[in-house]
């Protein structure tokens, strides 16, 4: 297990380095001067010169790359062009918002999705199952920001039940809770459908497997078969998909936060892109990539813990 | 002995059975119908649209739906319906172009990775994995920051983001097939590498690729709409469903119909492509993986 | 009135499957009797219904299967009509099964020991004792270092060890009836020999009855006392092993024996086969199912269903052309 863990973590770090390299290199691949791109169209010659000196753009390439990596490792992701504040600080300010939004969206989607998936297995091949199937596919297909806009229209503008803007007052948990309902709903909807289908397919495949038949042949109670034998195996692809899907939740958050004017990574990066504020964009992307890699690696290790066949693939 | 000369061509019998299976699957058929409608809308836009989509008519801005403007007008007096119809052309044009391009490049890279030297394969895998570790939209935003928003950037971004997925699929298929007996047999008979790739690998890996491509089209449509909604995609005044949604969003109180009108074709188009793609996949290979929602 | 030491009796069992192509008549009036201390062989080619029969014995028929007639009696009681809880109480405890493919028969993500302890859930003892019983049983079936193996996962064991473990698991509860479904089919020849050797050794300790379901005549010859030959969902012949092998009465049995490569006396360039194919079980013939392929067929065979003719105290065949 330990060897597998080390290999996985090493791989994740390697990937992060490649991504960092790619992000950094993008600035240079574009025609034009890097400082101009990095600072955007509003850069004055003085600003550019300062940036060149500070970023060491006048130094040989390998020195630049090395400096960049060294800075990033120590938490310095550069400075925002406009506010001159450290990028990392700006990210940390808004990241918890997005994280909470993502967590809440995923939680309710998990509960409803897995629940519906298990129901579909129990009712398999009935009319309800087919309807559920169609609904699931539909839910996956509708983009989250469209749902966000529509729910904004219905619940905020027309019915006035929930706030349209913001994340609620600081310290007032009630208003914060009310502000998170619609965004979490919008992000979670596509996941409900997806999870329901995944759980249903997974469980059906496992329940039909030979070893389940053996367990039944020994008279084991169905409840224990489902939880100890079937679910343990069926949950594995679910964990993998959720981990990978974290990336998509973050992507959805970008749009949904914009729709509801919620502070968060999404609003941060969208505004930065609009202003061609590359240091902030690059810093945010790297931060989110690192976070995503942590999640995926942790999920992989969890899966290896649950399914011993996975660890042994790496043996020898 | 004749079956040895001609490599098994999976396309003809598969196509026929696919059509039969699609007929038995009402949702897939429904999706196919929707797709055909939207493709027709995209192709015949100049003839179907009642008005010029970029023609300004500020006198009649925010008109509610009436007899001449079935979906009303937007903040610059442009006919929403016409813009939506032309939007189909934008959406489908970009989606099909980008997906096709990404698929072609992914196919080539995947074949090379699977069939070529091991070190090249390892390098490719590292790059593919790294690109996939970036949340798609984030990477798109980074590239857009550097290159500036626009249709060309949009297509480039989508292509770059999609290639790793296809390349990996093709690579996996190629690797699996390489060990297959009929490939070994061909090599033993002295077939050259390009011949093996073209006549034997290619027909067998294209099937799953086409399925995945068709299931990716709705994702790309959504991505384009999303980025256009953020004003980072297709530049106005070119009509895009995303743009119209944004205009509708900013004028939500004055003209709620815009948002509704723009959302409907987007939802229907993605639903249609998804249902059709699922139907196709079920007909041809039910074991393919589901896509993560975006 | 059932004989006291008849443990298992299958009476006129008729089972159909609902499928896309129509109703499949998998079993048509199958019957057998198994007494304590016997090893019974159920032999036939693919599609003869023996797997359905085995599933019926353990009461794990597929969801699209319908028992349209007959009964499976364990100690006189029809187990097919029992409520679910009662069915479960019998499984594993009184009637146990050794499955065909040991790799997929066990759960891949749980260690063997955990599963073997689980299978003893009928018993009230604490886990430690159950684990000790499992260890003892593994040693009994010839697995070296049972403690180590208890902690192993399925993919870490060799094919022969897995099959031994499967047999050990089935014997844990000392069931009265042990059903072995193709116990050697998934194994290579050397392992097959070991498993046959093991089963032979075990039967001396085992007080109940063992039923071996297989298509492999050699296994039946090595292991069994009595044999039931099945064809197209019916039992076409029953008899002692010696009767079946040296004096088969039913034309199908005779043809099967003749086709067995191990029985060939002279060098032949072409392996003998039985011409023709199995009848379509969605529309079983009114007459004898083997009529289309039988060398002794008459017009009556095609028209009338053959009778069950008892040739001796131990042998009987389902045929028009057999006389006692």
List keywords for this structure.
heterotrimer; A: 316 residues; mainly alpha; 79% helix; flat; C: 324 residues; alpha/beta; eight-stranded mixed sheet; four-stranded antiparallel sheet; 12 strands; 32% helix
What features would you describe in this structure?
The complex is a heterotrimer of chains A (316), B (294) and C (324). Chain A has 316 residues and is an all-alpha fold. Chain A has 13 helices and no strands. In chain A, helix 9 crosses helix 10 (222-259). Helix content of chain B is 73%, strand content 0%. Chain B is elongated, with a radius of gyration of 22 Å. Chain C is of the alpha/beta class and 324 residues long. Helices cover 32% and strands 24% of the residues of chain C. Chain C is built from 12 helices and 12 strands. The longest helix of chain C has 17 residues, at 189-205. At the A-B interface, helix 1, helix 6, helix 7, helix 8 and helix 10 of A face helix 6, helix 7, helix 10, helix 11 and helix 12 of B.
Please specify the SSE layout and strand pairing:
The complex is a heterotrimer of chains A (316), B (294) and C (324).
Chain A: H1 2-29, H2 34-39, H3 45-55, H4 61-73, H5 87-122, H6 127-141, H7 144-158, H8 173-207, H9 210-217, H10 222-259, H11 265-274, H12 278-306, H13 308-313
Helix pairs in contact in A: 1-12, 5-6, 5-8, 5-10, 6-8, 7-8, 7-10, 8-10, 9-10, 10-11, 10-12, 11-12
Chain B: H1 2-5, H2 11-24, H3 26-43, H4 45-48, H5 80-115, H6 118-133, H7 136-147, H8 151-178, H9 181-188, H10 193-229, H11 241-250, H12 256-284
Chain C: E1 6-19, E2 22-35, E3 39-43, H1 50-57, E4 65-74, E5 77-78, H2 84-90, E6 95-98, H3 102-105, H4 112-119, H5 127-140, H6 146-150, H7 159-171, E7 177-181, H8 189-205, E8 209-214, H9 217-223, E9 226-231, E10 234-240, H10 241-246, H11 251-259, H12 299-303, E11 308-310, E12 316-318
Parallel strand pairs in C: 3-8, 3-9, 6-7, 7-8
Antiparallel strand pairs in C: 1-2, 1-4, 4-5, 9-10, 10-12, 11-12
Helix pairs in contact in C: 4-5, 5-7, 7-8
């Amino acid at each position: 297990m330990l060897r597998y863990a080390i290999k996985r973590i090493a791989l994740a770090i390697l990937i992060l380095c490649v991504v960092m390299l790619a992000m950094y290199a993008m600035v240079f691949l574009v025609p034009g001067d890097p400082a101009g791109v990095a600072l955007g169209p509003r850069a004055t010659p003085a600003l550019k010169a300062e940036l060149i000196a500070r970023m060491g753009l006048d130094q040989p390439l390998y020195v630049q790359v090395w400096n960049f990596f060294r800075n990033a490792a120590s938490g310095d992701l550069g400075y925002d062009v406009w506010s001159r504040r450290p990028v990392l600080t700006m990210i940390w300010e808004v990241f918890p918002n997005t994280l909470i939004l993502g967590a809440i969206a995923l939680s309710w989607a998990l509960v409803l999705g897995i629940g519906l998936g298990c129901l579909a297995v129990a009712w398999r091949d009935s009319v309800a199952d087919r309807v559920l199937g169609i609904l699931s596919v539909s839910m996956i297909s509708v983009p989250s920001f469209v749902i966000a806009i529509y729910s904004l229209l219905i619940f905020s503008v027309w019915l006035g039940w929930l706030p349209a803007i913001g994340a609620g007052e600081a310290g007032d948990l009630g208003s914060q809770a009310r502000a998170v309902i619609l965004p979490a709903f919008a992000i979670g909807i596509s996941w409900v459908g997806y999870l329901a289908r995944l759980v249903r397919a997974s469980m059906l495949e496992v329940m039909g497997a030979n070893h389940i038949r053996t367990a039944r042949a020994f008279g084991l109670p169905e409840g224990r078969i489902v939880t100890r034998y079937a679910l343990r195996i069926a949950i594995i692809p679910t964990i993998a998909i959720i981990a990978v899907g974290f990336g998509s939740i973050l992507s959805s958050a970008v749009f949904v936060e914009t729709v509801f004017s919620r502070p968060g990574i999404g609003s941060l990066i969208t505004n930065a892109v609009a202003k061609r504020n590359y240091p902030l964009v690059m810093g945010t992307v790297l931060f989110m990539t690192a976070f995503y890699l942590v999640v995926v690696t942790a999920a992989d290790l969890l899966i290896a813990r649950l399914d011993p066949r996975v660890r042994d693939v790496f043996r020898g | 002995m004749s079956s040895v000369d001609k490599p098994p061509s999976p396309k003809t019998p598969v196509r026929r059975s696919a059509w039969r299976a699609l007929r038995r699957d009402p949702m897939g058929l429904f999706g196919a119908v929707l797709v055909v409608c939207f493709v027709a809308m995209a192709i015949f836009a100049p003839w179907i649209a009642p008005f010029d989509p970029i023609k300004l008519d500020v006198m009649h801005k925010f008109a509610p739906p009436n007899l001449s403007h079935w979906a009303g007008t937007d903040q610059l007096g442009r006919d929403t319906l016409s813009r939506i119809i032309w939007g189909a052309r934008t959406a489908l044009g970009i989606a099909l172009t980008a997906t096709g391009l990404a698929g072609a490049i992914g196919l080539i890279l995947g074949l090379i990775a699977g069939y070529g030297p091991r070190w090249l394969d390892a390098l490719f895998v590292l790059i593919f994995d790294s690109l996939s570790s970036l949340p798609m939209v984030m990477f798109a935003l980074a590239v857009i920051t550097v290159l500036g928003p626009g249709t060309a950037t949009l297509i480039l971004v989508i292509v770059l983001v999609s290639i790793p997925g296809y390349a990996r699929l093709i690579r996996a298929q190629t690797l699996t097939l390489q060990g297959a007996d009929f490939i070994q047999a061909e090599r033993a008979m002295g077939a050259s590498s390009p011949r093996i790739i073209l006549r034997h690998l290619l027909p067998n890996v294209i099937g799953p690729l086409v399925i995945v491509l068709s299931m990716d089209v709705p994702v790309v449509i959504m991505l384009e709409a999303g980025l256009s909604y953020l004003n980072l995609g297709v530049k106005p005044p070119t009509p895009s469903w995303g743009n119209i949604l944004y205009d509708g969003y900013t004028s939500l109180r004055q003209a709620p119909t815009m948002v509704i009108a723009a959302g409907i074709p987007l939802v229907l188009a993605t639903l249609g492509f998804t249902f059709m793609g699922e139907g196709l996949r079920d007909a041809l290979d039910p074991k393919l993986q589901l896509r993560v929602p975006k | 009135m059932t004989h006291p030491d008849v443990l298992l009796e299958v009476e006129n069992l008729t089972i159909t499957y609902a499928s896309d192509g129509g109703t499949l008549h998998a079993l048509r009036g199958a019957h057998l009797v198994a007494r304590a201390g016997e090893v019974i062989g159920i032999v036939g080619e693919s599609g003869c219904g023996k797997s359905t029969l085995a599933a019926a014995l353990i009461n794990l028929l597929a969801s699209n299967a319908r028992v349209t007639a007959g009964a499976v009696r364990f100690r006189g009681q029809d187990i097919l009509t029992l409520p679910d809880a009662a069915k479960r109480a019998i499984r594993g405890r009184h009637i146990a099964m050794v499955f065909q493919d040991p790799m997929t028969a066990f759960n891949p993500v749980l260690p063997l020991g955990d599963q073997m302890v689980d299978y003893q859930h009928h018993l009230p003892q604490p886990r430690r004792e159950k684990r000790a019983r499992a260890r003892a049983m593994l040693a009994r079936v010839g697995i070296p270092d049972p403690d180590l193996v208890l902690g192993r996962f399925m993919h870490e064991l060799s094919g022969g060890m897995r099959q031994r473990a499967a047999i050990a698991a089935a014997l844990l509860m000392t069931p009265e009836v042990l059903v072995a479904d193709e116990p050697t089919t998934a194994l290579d020849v050397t392992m097959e020999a070991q498993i046959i050797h093991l089963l032979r050794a075990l039967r001396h300790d085992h007080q109940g009855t063992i039923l071996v379901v297989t298509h492999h005549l050699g296994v039946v010859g090595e292991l069994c006392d009595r044999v039931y030959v099945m064809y197209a969902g019916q039992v076409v012949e029953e008899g002692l092993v010696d009767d079946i092998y040296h004096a088969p009465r039913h034309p199908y049995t005779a043809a099967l024996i003749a086709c067995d490569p191990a029985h060939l006396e002279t060098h032949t360039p072409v392996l003998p086969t039985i011409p023709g194919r199995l009848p379509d079980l969605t529309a079983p013939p009114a007459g004898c199912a083997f009529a289309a392929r039988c060398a002794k067929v008459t017009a009556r065979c095609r028209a009338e269903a053959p009778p069950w003719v008892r040739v001796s105290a131990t042998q009987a065949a389902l045929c028009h052309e057999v006389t006692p």
